């Protein structure tokens, strides 16, 4: 009996955490969940470059990397430090610039090569804590980078941040587009609004002759968006400069602001 009485009331703790989550989220004007049907389509790369682009326009924002098994946002922004805990025991986001803060599981691991072995409920808890236990300041936007597919992480984000709108990233190939249809149905079931679709790696412009080549095809994203009655936010071309810049922690929108990649990302950011 006594033991029962002394047990912390889990549901009360959860209710209190819900209050903190709601209060924190109310201070963030716009939330975007960047997702994709499959990996390697450039979702994290776009999340990072869109966030940087928005801060270049004077907005204040954050990136929340909920890719618990393969966080790549810190690497793409050149952030390597460990997380800090404030005196009030809240986690301090990493600062990329005065206007851009980042939270990623990566900064919480002792060793970057550590594998995180978590099941669904633990992931949901971690994602709730990324909101409730982090000292987020009032911001114009929060971009949430989720792992590919329709697994635990995007589900946890949808439950924790129901006001988030989704940006779905695809490449022009049919396999990728088929996965996107699945993502869109998943979002519909969870009542998450789709902000729009981005077609990444859409054509390649030769840096030598300037001629475009449709390496993976082109235009499938726009057709899919029209068919599914969602907004098409834009097509971002393949640019050979993106990979080395990302690998070295330099967002390409700053590295080469005149590139077609930067122009396309800037146009998408303007629509957000
Ligand atoms: P995802 O998050 O979908 O798994 P990433 O963002 O990690 O994919 O991108 C995969 C790789 O493709 C990275 O090396 C990234 O720098 C590169 N990449 C992404 N978009 C482009 C692009 N438009 N042009 C060239 N390389 C790109």
Write the layout of secondary structure elements.
Blueprint: H1 2-6, H2 10-26, E1 28-36, H3 43-56, E2 61-65, H4 73-77, E3 84-85, E4 91-92, E5 94-97, E6 100-104, H5 120-132, E7 139-145, H6 152-160, E8 165-170, H7 174-189, E9 194-205, E10 212-213, H8 220-227, E11 232-238, H9 242-247, H10 252-255, H11 260-271
Parallel strand pairs: 1-7, 1-8, 2-6, 2-7, 8-9, 9-11
Antiparallel strand pairs: 3-4, 5-6, 9-10
The structure holds adenosine-5'-diphosphate.
Adenosine-5'-diphosphate binds at residues 36, 39-45, 72, 200-201, 236, 238-239, 242-243, 246, 261.
Structural summary, described in words:
The relative contact order is 0.17. The chain is 40% helix and 22% strand. It has a single domain (2-271), classed as P-loop containing nucleotide triphosphate hydrolases (Rossmann fold), CATH 3.40.50.300. The mean pLDDT is 87. The chain has 272 residues and is α/β, with parallel strands linked by helices. The structure holds adenosine-5'-diphosphate. Adenosine-5'-diphosphate is lined by residues 36, 39-45, 72, 200-201, 236, 238-239, 242-243, 246, 261.
